Amino acid sequence: METEILDIAEARDYAISRAAELLRQGQIIAIPTETVYGLAADIFNAAAVHKIFAAKRRPANSPLSAHISNLKQVEMVAQNIDKRFWPLAEKFMPGPVGVIIEANPRVPSVVTAGTNTIGIRFPDEQNFIDIVNLFGSPVAATSANLSGKPSPTSAEHVARDLNGSIAAIVDAGISRYSTESTIISLLAEVPVILRQGVVSREALEEVLNCHIDYKN
After folding, report:
1. DSSP for residue 71
2. Pick from 31, 46, 108, 123: which is nearest to 77 by CA?
3. CA gyration radius for the chain?
C-alpha cells in the first residue's frame, strides 16, 4: 500500500476532503490531534477498525477510544451517560481529556475489546474537527505508532512506523502538547485517573468537586 501524505500547509481543503473520503471508504488514516497523532477509522465499520489493530500490531484485548468532533456525537457512541460527564465536557471538550463511560451497543465489540465501556475524546485540533465533521460520524482512534513504540508527535514520526501500512497521513506539523491526554474513568463512585497526561488531577477535581483516585 502506498501511504498518501496530505499536507495541511500545502493544500488544506484537499487534505481535509481526501481524509474524510478515505474514512468513508473504510480506510485507516493518521490524523493530527493537539496531543499526539492518532490512527483513525470509521467507528461503526468493524472491518476498518480491525485494520488499526493490524497496522499497529495491537493486542485485540486493548480497546480503542471514540474521537468525536462535536458533543452531539456523544450519544452515538455512549448510553446511560454519567451526569458527571457533562461538567467535564463543558470544561475540557474540546481538549486533552478522555472520559470512560458506558458504551452504546451500536459500537462494535472490536472497538471496546468486548467490554461495555468506551473512552470519549474530543480533540482541540481544528484540522481533526473539520475532517471528522465532514466525515459525519465519530472515529475509533488510538496513537499512530506501532504498539510499544513512542507516541508520534509529527507526520514524520508516523511515517517511520506505519508508512505503507495505512492509507494516508494528514500532516499538520508538530502536535501542540506533544504528550498524551489525561484519561479519567467515571465507572465507579470515585472517579479514577487511568492515565495522567496534559490535564492535572487538581484541575479535574475542581470541576467535579470531589476526590479523584489514581489507578493502582
Report:
1. G
2. 108
3. 16
State the Cα–Cα distance between residues 215 and 94, nearest whole angstrom.
Answer: 24
On whether the CB atoms of residues 82 and 186 are closer than 8 A, the answer is: yes
The pLDDT assigned to 38 comes to 98
- Sign for the pseudo-dihedral over CA of 152, 43, 123, 82: negative
Predicted pLDDT of residue 216: 73
What whole-number distance in Å separates Cα of residue 120 and Cα of residue 78?
8
The one-letter amino acid code at 46 reads A
Q: Which three cell numbers stand for residue 107?
A: 459500537
73 is written with which cell numbers? Answer: 456525537
List the grid coordinates of 163: 508508512
Nearest to 47 by CA among 71, 64, 28, 34: 28
Q: What is the DSSP letter of 174?
A: S
Q: What's the average model confidence in pLDDT over 151-155?
A: 97
Decide: 97 and 181 in contact? Cβ < 8 Å.
yes
**Sheet strands (E) in 59-113:** 65-67, 97-102
Q: Which helix (H) or strand (E) holds 205?
A: helix 201-208
Residue 172: the pLDDT is 98
Residue in 32, 28, 109 with CA at minimum distance from that of residue 63: 109
Exposure string for 29-40, b = 16+ CB within 10 A, e = fewer: bbbbbbbbbbbb
Nearest in space to 99 (alpha carbons), one of 205, 202, 193, 4: 193
% of the chain at pLDDT higher than 90: 99
